[in-house]
Amino acid sequence: MKLVFLGTGTAFPTPERNHSGTYIDIGPEAFLFDCGEGTQRQMAIAKIGSSKITKIFISHWHGDHVLGLAGLMQSMQMSNRPHEIHIYGPEETKHRFELMRKTFGIGLSFHYIIIEVKGTTKPQKIIDEADYEIWAVKTIHPVPCLAFKYIKKPLRRIDIGYVSKFGIKAPHPILKKLADGKNIKWEGKVIKAKDATYIKPGIKISYVIDSAYSKHLSAFAKESDILICESTFGADMQDAATLKGHMTTKEAGKIAKDAQVKELIITHISQRYKDPITLLKEAKSVFPNTKIAHDLMEIKF
Amino acid sequence: MKLVFLGTGTAFPTPERNHSGTYIDIGPEAFLFDCGEGTQRQMAIAKIGSSKITKIFISHWHGDHVLGLAGLMQSMQMSNRPHEIHIYGPEETKHRFELMRKTFGIGLSFHYIIIEVKGTTKPQKIIDEADYEIWAVKTIHPVPCLAFKYIKKPLRRIDIGYVSKFGIKAPHPILKKLADGKNIKWEGKVIKAKDATYIKPGIKISYVIDSAYSKHLSAFAKESDILICESTFGADMQDAATLKGHMTTKEAGKIAKDAQVKELIITHISQRYKDPITLLKEAKSVFPNTKIAHDLMEIKF
Predict the structure, then answer these.
(1) A94 — contact with chain B (CB < 8 Å)?
(2) Does the structure show a pLDDT above 90 at A39?
(3) Whose C-alpha in B100, B130, B149, B253 is 20 to 30 A from the C-alpha of B168?
(4) Which of A14, A37, A96 sits opposite B68 (nearest CB)?
(5) Would an 8 Å CB–CB cutoff place B107 in contact with chain A?
């Protein structure tokens, strides 16, 4: 499982930072959070194919978050994508997606499903799978914009060593009951789930991009293992940040601190900052366990 | 004056080759031929600003030639572009441009003028300025597609050394007549234009991209100093090339040879070719003075 920052800049790309795009590989499938212009080339550079991506999450329809979608769709089409794709985005995503197809003549023979999420400050569970959930919440930005959260559910696993003492060899159908947390009987003996299993903890990754500071975002990111948070501006540009619906380094730090996350990664760095060290220092002054994202940065989790 | 290859690949970008985009700086202004996804980032890497670009020429509306236009327009807008831009493209360019603006909510406060060119196999002069012309011709491709040609006109210049012998110091209003090719009288003496001036030769650059082979393209590129020609495929993929409306290396070479150009630069190289040497050899076997373009390649002229 890994997280790859495909683009960590804003609207003006720089040689160092492309527009927004974050890839999360959760094992059997992968997600793409935002798809700014040039995302598919960043994927090529990172040796990431498009076929594993099952879901794309668009935070909002500002160019630096979505202008790569047309190209990615065309490439998926040319690659004869065999399976469907789900695209989540704010209001108007369906209409804009179809306009985009019309503009550039994008014919798609694979199935695509667009799910519009009307953002609210109360978090909404938008996906509930057996082993993970995705949540969305509204951000504070001039256009409808969503933050997302991936939660891998904690998983009860069999302690193979323990059950083997009873002569059960995995895989065995009876183990399913244990995995469900139920005690079993085996050759006259009771094997308790609490002894024969352990909990593999889940993981929580929050993606808060393009928003002014707001307390509800801390609540949303509560106890995340990783909080990816926009930090377009340095602390000296507080007024510009608030005005434009963005955060400063210190505000990103405050979100992380209040949310008691394990790690903060700041991204969406304005082109005006050539040296990221000052930004990192500022965020760290509020929340010490902070990293600053750079393009193609990879984090295993 | 320089030519910069911003992108030399096709629909699938590779770490080495971005989608189509060619920048031509003619001194007081600059042109962009095609604007594939990621073109503005390639410009940033090449340290090329957008403000000097006065005209954009779109060959056709396939994604790899046009998906960077929205981002470039947005960046021009955010840079408070003071002057207008002219965008030339095939049929439907106006309609698609406006759809594109609507899709991505692109507000433009600078003036833009879109000129649709209905391509014909007979070349059309689409721009006639004092010192240069631009011509367009239809190519052979599944959608309306244009090839372009830039012609810098030959210019009569004053031989400053010669006129100074007569005591005329430049700049002097009387020199205008000489520059127009007329003889003048000066202190009782006749100064002949043919002695006092010389012709600075013009230059011809042809841009033929996304087309199957066709003789009329040789006629169009006739005696170009530089012919930039698509060569999507190697000679072994002749059938695929023709079917898809593209050329092979050898066909690009044949266009150059028949057109008696000075130099051929092949570009629009399919992602399947990791090693360009074979392609270059094939083109050279037909037209020896051939180069293969690579991203950010710069040619002064």
Answers:
(1) no
(2) yes
(3) B130
(4) A37
(5) no
The residue ranges of every structural domain in chain A are: 2-154+201-300, 156-198
Mean pLDDT rounded to a whole number for chain B: 97
Return all residues near B28 (Cβ < 8 A) that are at least 6 apart. Answer: none
Q: Which positions of A are catalytic?
A: 64
B173 contacts B111 by C-beta, under 8 angstroms: no
Output the six-digit token pair for B169.
């110091």
Place of tokens 């205008």: B176
Q: Does A160 touch chain B (CB under 8 A)?
A: no
User: How large a percentage of chain B has pLDDT more than 70?
Assistant: 100
Instruction: Compare CB distances from A41 to B18, B44, B99 and report the shortest one's residue.
Output: B18
Angle, alpha carbons B225-B230-B236 (nearest 5°):
125
In chain B, positions 119-158, which contact chain A (CB-CB < 8 Å)? 143
Least confident of B171-175, B226-230, B288-292: B171-175
Interface test with B, best of A45, A103, A232 (most B CBs within 10 A): A103
Residue A199 above 90 pLDDT?
yes
CA atoms within 13 A on the CB side of A150: 26
Question: Which residue is closest to B13 within chain A, CA to CA?
Answer: A41
Distance CA B290, CA B276 (A): 12
Task: Tell me the chain B residues in contact with residue A61 when contact means C-beta distances shorter than 8 Å.
Answer: 104-105
- Does B77 touch chain A if contact means CB atoms closer than 8 Å? no
Is residue B12 within 8 angstroms of chain A, CB to CB?
Answer: yes
Of A14, A45, A64, the CB nearest to B44: A14
pTM beyond cutoff 0.90: yes
Predicted complex ipTM: 0.93
Residue A274 contacts B where some CB pair is shorter than 8 Å: no
Q: For domain A2-154+201-300, which CATH number applies: 3.60.15.10, 3.40.50.970, 1.10.10.10, 3.30.450.20?
A: 3.60.15.10
Q: Is B70 helix (H, G, I), strand (E, B) or coil?
A: helix
**CA distance linking residue B172 with residue A132, whole number of Å:** 80
Could you give the CA distance from residue B214 to residue B212 in angstroms, rounded to a whole number?
Answer: 6
User: In this complex, which of B41, B44, B63 lies closest to A71 when CB atoms are compared?
Assistant: B63
**Number of helical H runs and strand E runs in chain B:** 11, 18
Are A266 and A279 a contacting pair, CB within 8 Å? yes
Q: Is B233 on the interface with A (CB under 8 A)?
A: no
What is the pLDDT of chain A when averaged over all its residues?
A: 97
Instruction: Look at residue B170 in the predicted model and tell me its pLDDT.
Output: 84
Please report, for residues A35, A111, A126, A246, B39, the alpha-carbon distance to residue A86 in angstroms, rounded to integers and kept in the order given. 14, 9, 12, 28, 28
- Burial (CB < 10 A; 0-12, 13-18, 19+), residue B18, is buried
Q: How far is A134 from chain B (nearest CA, A)?
A: 26
Q: pLDDT band at residue B114, thresholds of 50, 70 and 90?
A: very high
Tokens 């399913």 locate to A176
Pairing verdict, β A290-292 and A263-267: parallel
Provide the pLDDT confidence category of residue A173 given band limits of 50, 70 and 90: very high
**What distance in Å separates the CA atoms of residue B43 and residue B7, rounded to the nearest whole number?**
10
Query: Which residues of B carry out catalysis?
Result: 64
Confidence of residue A170 (pLDDT cuts 50, 70, 90): confident
